[in-house]
Sequence to fold (65 residues):
Amino acid sequence: MKADKVRGLDVEELRRQLQEMDEQLFRFQFQRSMGQLDGLKKARAMKKDRARIYTVLRERAEGNK
Fold:
């Protein structure tokens, strides 16, 4: 997900996506612990997307002060 797309979403949508990503990352970590390494690139990309979302949320929180 590109940063422009993330900035276009509202706060509730960003938080909902973060929750979904957390659940998916948990499943990936569980699969990796079981020896299945499918989706490693997807997990890395998801971590980067989470970081982008957290950055946008932080920027908005600082802007409201």
